[in-house]
Amino acid sequence: MTFGFFLFILINGLSQGMVLFIVASGLSLVFGVLRVINFAHGSLYMIGAFLAFSLSTLLPAGSMLSFLVLLLLVPPAIALIGLGLEIPLFRRIYKKEHLLQLLLTYAVLLILDDACRLIWGGDIRNVARPEVLAGSIEFFGMFLPSYNVFILIIGPIIALGLWYLLYRTRVGNLIRAAVSHPEMVGALGVNVSRVMTGTFMLGCWLAGFGGVLMSALANIDLSIGMEKIIECFAVVVIGGLGSIGGALLSSLILGLGVSLIQLPLSRAAIVFPYFAMALILIIRPWGLFGKPER
Amino acid sequence: MNDTQKAKTNWIMGAAVILALFILPFVLARLGKTGEFWIWVTTEMIIMALFATSLNLVLGFGGMVSFGHAAFFGVGAYTVALLMKKAGVNLIVALIAAPCLAAVAAAIIGWFCVRLIGLYFAILTLAFGQLLYMIVFQWYTFTGGDDGIHGIPKPEFLGPINYYFMCLIIFLICFLVMRMIVNSSFGLSIRIIRENLDRAKFIGINVRRYQLINFIVAGFFAGIAGGLFTELNRFAQTEFLHWSRSGDAIFACLVGGMYSIIGPAIGSTVLIFLHIFLQQLHQSLVEIWALILGFILLGVVLFAPEGLVGLFQKVTKKSET
Prior knowledge:
The complex is a heterodimer. Chain A is 72% helix and 3% strand. The longest helix of chain A is centred in the N-terminal third of the chain and has 32 residues, at 3-34. Chain A has twelve helices and two strands; from the N terminus they run H-H-H-H-H-E-E-H-H-H-H-H-H-H. By secondary structure, chain A is mostly helical. The relative contact order of chain A is 0.20. By secondary structure, chain B is mostly helical. Chain B has helices spanning 3-29, 33-61, 70-85, 91-113, 118-138, 140-143, 160-183, 185-195, 197-202, 207-233, 243-256, 263-281, 283-287, 289-303, 307-320; strands at 149-150, 235-236. In chain B, strands 1-2 form a two-stranded antiparallel sheet. In chain B, 45% of the residues are buried.
């Protein structure tokens, strides 16, 4: 195994991990504020990827501009779908028991996945990478696929943006206050349910964004939603529910781990997320960066 | 209606249903080909009712959401398949071994899982269930991977009708045993853990041990269901262990009503019947089965969280007053 090949695996694993982080941070954010684990999050990500595909067939192929249009239009569309889910459905179950919450989001998953199948069918698809990002970049004498490098740049920007939003703006203060003391925030005259809806939409926006990035990174089909939601579970469990930094670290661990294990043991790689999740739940159930609940 | 009267009507209704179930195959046998199909379907309903009822020990009475219950169904299924196909063991021995091995698997997985509660428990059971699924999926030489194991031998005496009776009797025995467990002091302790974990601890209940035992018992009965299902289909495949099968059982509990012992059996039967009914109505309806199921589930979660049994109780109560 040459060093260049090893580096390629590394870059690939890291960029898969970055996409995973973007999607999982949405799940984690929604859990942190609404205390609901959204099973349908992976489906929203999948719809994002397929929407990007459909939209890309209408736009001129290969231009950077049309890819930017995808990144600009698709995530808000997913956020709007989120709005359509939150107000009639999710809002009714915040105070109910865990089981009913899980089952409601599971029902939404079934409906969305089937709707997706009816609309787009079972074919394998992908979005053409824009020409600027289709080649490779020379880096100390090695050639790295530029789209992966692009994702590696976008990921930290999203992470920083989220951190800035949550910890340096008034909106972020409201969101964090709504997590810890919803009644108090309400008593101070803030419309808490609007904060919750907004957070849910932001989570969906992230899922859609991850979907667009993935649609040009790898092939997409009807199984990616289910695959991603399990990986996202693994990420938020390992990183600690509600922790952005933890989500970033554990996404990168998972992305790297899967692509490194894939080399010698291609079959064992898909077991890795489950294994890592089970392991962390046994030794440190609240995750690497989370806090014990009781 | 007071309580003793209620219990009496329940017993009468139960006896009537059981009697009907014993007469049913003779009626169906007269219908020729469609009758044979429906005997097969009712056998499947009975087995799935057993599976759903076993899950409900954990889910409804224990208040522990398990997404990994299919693992024990699968262990039972593969035990029967492997013992009968590769070791040439007869059906009865295989059917005794199936729940025992499933209980062992439940003991190992449960030992880890009962350390966690609520959401984390749900995710960990999901993770373990999928781990087992992946192992079976990848281990071609032993489990046949995604091809599964086909051509499981069928004992001479077991025609479809005889097999139906065998499943029915096993179901009835298991059902009565589970009913006894739920109503025993053990069952009451399990329910108090569901209602108030801290209080259960304060009054001296060893919460983890009770939950673990409950988990093992549920796994045991799921193993029986898995074994019976394998013999019915005469194959075992990885899909038996997939977590969507756990999901199906959870639906059955929810739709039927998870705070009653009979609810899951009713829910599972209704769902299977609905699936086949839609199939007969129009083929295209089956293609959107997940969509239909999703909407049913939404309706139940939002408007009738106590399921069909809860609805029935509401209706009968209204007619009294």
